Amino acid sequence: MLIRPAEPGDAAGVASVHARAGRAAWSSFLGDVLAEPDVPLWQERVTAPGFLVAERDGVVVGFGRADVTTGEVALLYVDPAGQGRGTGRALLGAVVDLLRRAGWQRARLRTEERNTGPRCFYERAGWCPTGEVLEREWAGRRLREVWYAADLTE
C-alpha cells in the first residue's frame, strides 16, 4: 500500500470510495444518500492541501485530509472491501503526521454519533470523545456529530 498526496486524476477513485464507504457506514440511519459517486464534487477537493490517498496496486482504496489551519482530521474514508487491512490506521497516522508537522499538539475530528464502526476505530487508536457535539443538516438529514481529540505530543 502507498499513501501519497492526492492528484486531480484521483477524483474518480476518491468519489467511488466515498460513495461505497458512506453507504456502508450511514445507510442504516441516513438511507441511500450516496447512491452514485460524485466525481465533479471531488475534482477540486482532491487538490486541497493535506489531502492524501491510499492506493493498492494503483487503485485508490482510501483517503484522508488534514486541515492544518484548524488542527482537524477533516476526512478519513476507506473502501469497505479493504477495511481490516491497516489502511485506515496508516491513513490516520499520515494525516496526524501532517498536523504534527504543522505544529499542532492536539488534533480533533468528528463523526456521526450513530456511526459506531468508525467511533470504535478512533477510540482503539487512542482518540477520546470531548463531550462536544455538532448538530447540523446534510443532504436533508439531521446529523449529530461527536467530537474526538488526541494528544499529538506523545
UniProtKB/TrEMBL annotation:
This is L-amino acid N-acyltransferase YncA. CDD domains: NAT_SF (cd04301). Residues 1-153 form the N-acetyltransferase domain. It comes from Geodermatophilus saharensis. It comes from the Bacteria. Signal peptide: none annotated. Keywords: Acyltransferase, Transferase. One of its GO terms (molecular function) is acyltransferase activity, transferring groups other than amino-acyl groups. InterPro entries: Acyl_CoA_acyltransferase, Bact_Acetyltransf, GNAT_dom.
